[in-house]
């Protein structure tokens, strides 16, 4: 299967550079079975949920992971934290005219033009393409003072005060992501309460989204793509909630591709859902047999990205591309701050495992 099989044309003016005026004010494209897509507003999601369903959210919290610094030579450095290793250490992407060597000390600044301030960061080595950093103070404390929200590369502007709230879900509780689980951005506390009032249960997994989520697929044959790795936790409590939903005839509705990847990673070893804690590099594309997820809420994804490959695996490539063409024609807003989709495959959709064998492909 070729990367070009997942291409679509997107006018640049459909990229959402800012969130909707209201958190739940986005549009919702409902793709259900073979029916024509339905055009709704996001709060209408409750019309498609039913008592007994289980909504699975990703509770990761986006950290202000972008830092600006200066080398002792005066050269400017941009730092994007990829992962915190412990209270004082992290690995990061560094952008500079010349990469700093181990032992280099970087002085942090409020922005890329400002003079450096008091905090300093030491480069202690390399971890592949990433740089190992050590902070004198706790990493999170430094980020809260100096950090900027790490908006995606296609949002071509500086972060603003509003982004501290809006590029974060209302239920975010576990620090560690450098990109938001964007399908969850549409949910308000009132909307979640409304779902619970109609008998929908809620569960929370954790996937700390890394900058690799924006990594391009550079190979023509997608089977040769090396997927990035991200940290995931699926608790025993979540496994029991899924089992209970199944027992009562409810559906597992994943809020976002990160929740999908979490649940499906937790099925990886045996083909059945089990508690999981650790890194996963699961790559889901057409031909994958889903073990756990029955429905999905998601945003619109970049052409030829691993995420459009994932939703194509869930609904069928032609069905997804047709829905994307409809979204473009109806001028939906795309990507992280854009509108949403609800994906409800029909019983005949060939994406479900027929037994307990693990059929993922890497």
Automatic annotation (TrEMBL):
Q: What is its EC number?
A: 2.4.99.17
- Where is this protein found? Cytoplasm
Q: Which UniProt keywords apply?
A: Cytoplasm, Glycosyltransferase, Isomerase, Queuosine biosynthesis, S-adenosyl-L-methionine, Transferase
Q: Which SUPFAM superfamilies match?
A: QueA-like
Q: Which reaction does it catalyse?
A: 7-aminomethyl-7-carbaguanosine(34) in tRNA + S-adenosyl-L-methionine = epoxyqueuosine(34) in tRNA + adenine + L-methionine + 2 H(+)
Transmembrane as UniProt keyword: no
- Which GO-annotated molecular functions does the record name? S-adenosylmethionine:tRNA ribosyltransferase-isomerase activity
Tell me one GO biological process term.
Answer: tRNA queuosine(34) biosynthetic process
What Pfam families does this protein's entry cite? Queuosine_synth (PF02547)
Under InterPro entries, the record lists: QueA, QueA_dom1, QueA_dom2, QueA_sf
The record describes the protein's role as: Transfers and isomerizes the ribose moiety from AdoMet to the 7-aminomethyl group of 7-deazaguanine (preQ1-tRNA) to give epoxyqueuosine (oQ-tRNA).
**What family does the database annotate?**
Belongs to the QueA family.
Q: What is this protein called?
A: S-adenosylmethionine:tRNA ribosyltransferase-isomerase
- Tell me which species this is from: Spongiibacter nanhainus
